[in-house]
Amino acid sequence: xxxxxxxxxxxxxxxxxxxxxxxxxxxxxxxxxxxxxxxxxxxxxxxxxxxxxxxxxxxxxxxxxxxxxxxxxxxxxxxxxxxxxxxxxxxxxxxxxxxxxxxxxxxxxxxxxxxxxxxxxxxxxxxxxxxxxxxxxxxxxxxxxxxxxxxxxxxxxxxxxxxxxxxxxxxxxxxxxxxxxxx
Length: 183
Known about the structure:
Strands 1, 2, 3, 4, 8, 9, 10 and 11 form an eight-stranded antiparallel beta sheet that branches. Strands 6-5-7 form a three-stranded antiparallel beta sheet, with no helix packed on it. It has one helix and eleven strands; from the N terminus they run αβββββββββββ. It has a single domain (32-173), classed as Umud Fragment, subunit A, CATH 2.10.109. The termini are far apart. The protein is α+β, with helices and mostly antiparallel strands. A hairpin with a 2-residue loop joins strand 5 (96-100) and strand 6.
């Protein structure tokens, strides 16, 4: 066999490998994971500014999103659906979420949510009340005093189909697996 024939054979082998790797990569990023970057401090202390995260797209294939899940979703006020947000699910479909004196209550409960994950106590602001429509979710950031979340959006709720996946780990600047907080 000539050197040219060996070169062509080797080049074709490499091209096949690269093509296969690109196809597998596209399938994984479109159907299995979501890669997200966090540009703000709205989820501190769990997720810091600049963190790079992976969310699992198949999290809700056999299960419904649950309260306290941290998810990546399409921002409901972006008509292009290109902006991705990371927030925590607080209100579930059909529930009433009330924020009174900086505490979150669900369906008129006398006990506020156990929000042990928030960065600092939520500042007292005007009381708020939201009724979550069926098929939608109410989101809050963990750093509530600076988070732009469901409280302030024009479209207050995230449709279930816009939830792309549950955050499972951070890979930059260091690796960290996130546990599920749902009860």
